[in-house]
Amino acid sequence: MEDAVDTRIVAELSRDGRATLADLSAAVGLSVSAVQARLKRLEARGVITGYRATVDAEAVGRPLAAFIEITPLDPAQPDNAPELLEHLGAIEACHSIAGDAAYMLFARVASPRALEDLVRDIRHAAGVRTRTTVVLQTFYEHRPLVPAAGD
């Protein structure tokens, strides 16, 4: 971050991705054109990578969430699971992790049967062992990513 104003712009957008230039201008005390120029620089530098809607999973038919740890069956196999699983649309996120497992996936599906099918597809596509944890309730997610002080 170049300065405190950039930090504040990113924080405001993280809290409300639909904030208008006028909203941001009022929040940071700059003109609309100055805020717009800073936004373009933040986007060009890759600090702001996009804007998206937060969608209610139940409303779109994917109420069941799960974390799925994957571990290669053969430690000598290529480390290409993310590429092998990218085509599975139920997987929202794939994280490389420390520990016994190689990756942690986060998935949303319609039903327990759909989860079973997804786990089978993951095992088949990537040649991995899985460990699945079903989410019972989510208290919060998609929290604003506010830049740390000094960044």
Distance between the termini: 6 Å
Query: Strand count, sense and closure of the main sheet?
Result: 4 strands, antiparallel
Elements, N to C (H/E): HHHEHEEHE
Nearest-integer average pLDDT: 94
Number of helices: 5
- Principal-axes geometry comes out as elongated
Query: Runs with pLDDT <50, length 5+?
Result: none
Q: What Rg is obtained from the alpha carbons, in whole angstroms? A: 20 Å
Q: Judging by the overall fold, what is the CATH architecture of the largest domain?
A: 2-Layer Sandwich
Quantity of strands, as a count: 4
Measured by DSSP, the beta-strand proportion falls in 15-25%
For the record, the CATH class of the largest domain is Alpha Beta
Instruction: Quickly count the domains.
Output: 2
**Share of residues in helices:** 25-40%
